[in-house]
Structure formats: structure tokens, C-alpha cells
Design a protein that fits this description.
The chain is mostly helical. The protein has 25 helices and no strands.
Length: 444
Amino acid sequence: MDLELKEAACSGNVDFLRSVVGLKPIDEYFLTKLSPMDENIFHLATRCEQSEFLELATEILPEQVQQKLHSQKDKNGCTPLHMAAGLKQSRQISLKTVKLILGFYKSGVPVTNKPWLEHNQNGYTPLHLAIEVVNEESAMEILSMDVESLCMMVDKKENDSALFLAVKNGCNKVAEKILLSSYSYSLRGKDGSTPLHFAPNSSENVLRLLLEKHPELIDAVDHSNGYNMLHQWAELNQVWPIDFLLRGEFPAARTKVFTDLITMKATEENLFDTPLHTAARTHKNVEITKSIINGYKLEQEMKAGNMDESTDYFPPWRIGNIYKHTPLLVAIYEQQNEELALYYINLDSTLCHMFSDSAESPLFAAVGDCCENVVEEILNNQEVTFNMLRKTKGNTILHSLWKMPGTFFVLLYFYVFTHHPHKLLILNFNNAMSDFFGYSPNSL
């Protein structure tokens, strides 16, 4: 290992580079691996963002030496082009270095290797790496070297295609170039995901191209978590793709999404959640839920226009998951999302009377999770049955009152005393007082 050459490459010492050319055996000296990671001078200069050093090396080193330097791989299987494509700190330096490396091959030299088609040990080509770190201009330069081959290549680790990664990472220029090319291209994504799953990360034009060219992707399901594209859109928390469908440019897709996909359940590992459960579970944004439900309502209205009566007997927001939790219960339990919970209650009061598999009502859940506004809404404006005040294991709403402000203790007790006075004993009131005050009234 020549420490002086290593230091020059890392620091960008062009004077040292000029001084040793002609004084050292070219192949033996410049092709030496200079680090424990088996990096050559092109690897080091690229990693250290020394573009001037690389420019000078391109000018003064023999062509055959440059061919070998560009094709050499470090211990991670990366060529200098891989490193340039994956630079995270500066997109400008990445682009400059990528252009410099690819410019060597575009200069008319005989091409004895094609580093843009090489996979590193993680299975990534330089194109995949550039897209992953959103070096989009660098990715476009690499893609231009061989659109036909690169469109079909997938990374050997996750089986992700360039198109899938471009859509997922919002590299819209790359996605459009592939979708509009005359070549065949791969749509593959990890575990059966498709570009359409991650269209919310891209642009309206990319989404339009995907729906025009590949409507079959609407039915695709991720094998890992059982997510269809509406599950994924709900998790990504992007409203605009749903609004795009509602504009009616793709009526068949809209009908499929808001009739079939909206009721589909994920895998058991994901609790058999529907897209509405996913939206309630993953964030507090109410707008994504409203948009999905607006799509469902629109489809129902269009169906009703062709029928004598509505077929909306069991809307998707009443569907329970593995625990028989409706999206309303999920909103309360997972996010304590009172805004979403109140939206569901006002949408369909039947939800207040739908119980989990352990017989917990939304009122019971709201008390336990301190959702004060939800408790007040149900008590003041909904018909409360006795079963809504308890669950199968014997615990009652009164057992959870210690979590709530004192005013709510009075409100709930007054409600039970007024509406169900003969059932206070059934509610195990003494034990509830013990939970609330630390002792039972009977011990006084």
C-alpha cells in the first residue's frame, strides 16, 4: 500500500499525481489497492469527493489503466461508478463524478467493461444506488448508457426493479423515461409490491402512466403484509392519488379501488386490517380516511342510480379486524385520535354499538384511553346501552375512571345512576371505587 498515493487521492493532491506519472511503473503503481477495503485511487477520490483529482487522472493516465481502475471492485463489490452514484452528501458532486466516469466510455475508447451493469455484493447496480439516495440526475446519466438492459435489471437482494425504486423514491424523471421508453421493463418490487403501491411518492403524470399502461397492477397484493395498493396509500398518508381517482379519468380503476380494495384485509400478521384500519392505525390525519370514504360513497351513489334501492347494507367502516375492532376502535386504541373517532361516530352511530371480541365498546375504549371528547359525544348524543358500560372479563367503565379527569367521573356516575340505577351492583361499583380511590366504600 502506497500511503502517499492514498493520501493524494483522498486529499485531491493533483500536484503529487502529476509528479509521479512517468516516474512509477504505471500498472504496478496506479492499480494498487490502497485501503483495507481494497479501494483504488478512483474509489478513494470518489468517496472523498475529489473530482479535480479524477479529472486530472482521466487526462494523464493511459487508457488501459483507466479501464482497469473503473472496473476494479472494492470488498463491497463496488466500482468507482457505484460510489459516485451513491454519494449522499452532494448531488452535484455525484453528478459531476458520474459524468466524468461515463464520459470516459463515451469518448470513443473500446469498451472492455460496463460498470453501469455491474452488481455490488448487496445486489445493486449503480442505477439502483443513485435512485435509492435520490441522485436523480446521476441516475438519468447512468440510465442513458443502456436503457434496454437497465430497464429489465433488478437488484439481486430485494428483486426491486429500477422503475419500482424510481416511483418509490420520487425520481419522476427516471420513472417517466422508463415508462415512455420503447423497451420492455421490469415492474418487480420487493415481496410482490408494485410501482402502483408507491405511486403517492411520485407525480400525477407517473400515476397516470401506470394506470394507462398497467391497470392489472391494481389487483396486486404485497405477499409480506397482504397490502393492496389502497392499504399502502393509506399508510403513506397521501390524499392526492385518491382525489386523482375521484376525478373520474380512470372510472374502472376507481370502481375497483372503492368497491373491492377498500374491503380487502391484510395478512394475519397485520391483524386482517382493511385500508381504513391502516389509515386509523398509522397516523392522525383524518383527511386520508375522509377521501377513501368519499370514494366509497361516490361508487355507491353511482350504483344506486342504476338500482331501485341501495346495496349499502354493510359499509367498509363497519368491518372488524382480527380482534373485531372497527376503524373507530383502532382510532381510539392506537392513536387516541379523537378527531377521527368523532368523524366515524357522526358518520355512522351504529359503530358505537359494535363491540370487539372481548366485548369492549367504543365508549369503554374511550374511557380507558382518556378520549374525553369521544366519551362526552357518546354520552350526550348517542343511545347508550348497558352492555356498552362493561366487557366480558368483568371490568366496567367505572374501573377506568381513575384515568379520567374528575368531572368525567361525576358525569359517568351520574349517567349510570340516572339510566341504570338497578345495575350499579352488576357494574361492580365497589371494586371500581377501589380502583379509583384506593379503597372500597364498604371498608369505611
